TrEMBL record:
Keywords: Glycosidase, Hydrolase, Signal. It comes from Pseudoalteromonas neustonica. Residues 299-763 form the Glycosyl hydrolase family domain. This is GH92 family glycosyl hydrolase. The keyword Cell membrane does not apply. InterPro entries: 6-hairpin_glycosidase_sf, GH-type_carb-bd, GH92_a_mannosidase_put, GH92_N, Glyco_hydro_92, PNGase.
Amino acid sequence: MKASFYTSLLLCGSLVSLNTYATQHSNTQWVDTFIGTGGDGHLFPGAVVPFGMVQLSPDTDNPMRGVSPQPEIYKRCAGYHYDDHTIVGFSHTHFSGTGHSDLGDLLIMPMTGEIKTTPGSAENPEAGYRSRFSHDKEWSEPGYYGVELQDYNITAQVTASQRVGMHKYTFNDADAGHVLIDLTAAIYNFENKVIWSDIRLIDDHTLVAYRATNGWANNRQMYFAIEFSKPISEYNFINEDDKRYRCMDCLGKEKHSTIENKAVKIAAGKAVKFVASFDGLKDEPLYIKVGLSAVSRSNALKNLKTELPHWDFDKTRADAKAQWATYLDKVDVEGTKSQKRQFYTALYHALQAPNIYQDVNGQYRGVDGEIHEGKGFEHYTLFSLWDTYRALHPLLTIIDPDRVSSMVQSMLVHYQQSYENMLPIWSFHGHETWTMIGYHAVSVIADAYLKGIRDFDIDLAVEATINTANNPVYDAIPQYKKFGYVPMDVLPESVSITLEYAYDDFAIAQMFNAMGKKQLAKEYYARAMNYKNVFDKQTGYMRGKDSKGNWNPDFNPEAAKYMGPFTEGNSNQYSFYVPHDVAGLIDLMGGDDKFEGRLDALFDTHLSADMIKEHEDIAGLIGNYAHGNEPSHHIAYLYNYAGKPWRTQERIRQIMDTLSSDKPDGLAGNDDVGQMSAWYIFSAMGFYPVAPGDLSYAIGAPQVEKVTLKLAQGKSFTTFAKDISEENLYIQSVTLNGKPLTRNYLMHAEIINGGELRYQMGDKPNKTWGTAHSARPPALSKYKG
């Protein structure tokens, strides 16, 4: 037994060494997890593996209603903000770059000395369990985070697998210490956040816990299995509820178990915490493993035992980093150090979500609240579709097409389980939030189908697409079908809704056309032209219209009013949201030259802060162009459609140079679950999917010298930017696989089949390349079917 144990230990050490060697020479070295944790990037620096269910990260504050002002809540949507200097603990679930707060499940905080059970404040950390920290003593890499907790002289380190978080706490000058488990903590911890929770002591090493919360998602349930590497010497159940309740599932024991009543092995209620105390901490670190499940306590334990049956923190860290290396090494980039840091960090953020939402035994909690088996596919959650349909999901069709099928299947089972017969709109953790507009799951499904990714139920996809696009209870679909637009007296954000419905209808039509369903395709192509019904020819802008056909009398193209005709934007921005028929939009605006002038006015006209004060998300401004929010992301590429591709090249460089960096505040706004990062990746390579579903990518301007995409079946696609420099920002000529490319767009097949795209760069615009009408990207008014 002893020889076998040491042989296993040596083998384990050899594997860790191999992993360490491999990852030291991988592209993980360029990732800085702190990029986007400052400003309004809303990113977290903690431990996560690609698409992992666990995001184990430090929280620097838990803003509470009535304590912190609303801007502070928005600032800390990810739980951590780089400007902060205290940490309240380490929680296991976080959103990546969203503009809304929730999660922060199961906060753990180590401490020494006096036991404290409230967090205190950033101004007075001694009043609670929080600790000061310094960025000088803080470290991270993909799959790992570490920090010195100064108030306790504890070195805290965390890493993760798919469903399990692992903690390592080194008590540097104390032999005894404590660990607080706070089930009340949450990101945006408002009153009545916790509906119910409990924590149970199984033995002197093991706890299981549960909590249900209200927040962005209501009655969201999560289960936890917690295991310590050392036996608990003392423990305290703490219940801070003002009232007494009866626990319905713990054999009649009262949930208000107190610190004095140590014989009781469970506490349950709405304000439950637990403190575990340990001795002998000078001899070796304390390790903690936490398994997550949305299904049950037993599943949380099974996830823990299956994924991390050992206590080897270094191996877990190396395994997490190796998973990241596998993905990050799918792309090789040549450029400056700053460019590589930005590119690979963007790729790291783009591959964090959607998240696995399924236990190791295949079970998951569906949107109907029931427990289901994921048969034949992995189940995913966190579909921020208003953001991610634009670039993130198209990027995944290139980087990880096999995973896309499971994501589509996850959307389809959401449809089957939904009482409203809808595909997801903005969903996470088995809940539909109904946040944002459009029915953009159809774009993701259509784009995948058109790219040959079809390992899902095609008949069900057709059914779900039709029922979603014609659902009589969602937003104003009946009025949209009746009037050809959404009247502003029926629903706020009516113009944006109309425009985004029209794009979605185009994506549906493209899929049906490819399936040979010509009559259905014709119907949706016609619906896709509805954008014209909210274009006011007199003003030249998209404009609200009521059900009687009267234009909005209170119209200002710069105004972005809450509950007005536009969604997190104004008419200046949304007047360019016709990605599927830019040629038709150019005609409406008076032709190529006038369209170019309108684009210039968007970028060059200062936008008053008074016009956007009601919307925190309108950020990263260049004139009226708002790079920090999604409705602007395609706009710089629209010069191509007017035969002025060199203007796109200028704008892309302008955006890159002024709104991106490799610093903590290096994002212009919310990363929005990888969408901002996906924009950066595409734009750095020199092309962008303006209208997912038409299979084309508008060519912009490469920003790095060379990028190689390692594709399926051993293929690769490489972009070269010869002579690129600060001055040489203009494309002089392009070749594809050695042949001149005179059009200003690529097709998906040309990328996925592999090859070489070579840009010759120069310091003056080439005003002949890519300018002909035949050289411009496709548009609905140019072809139908």
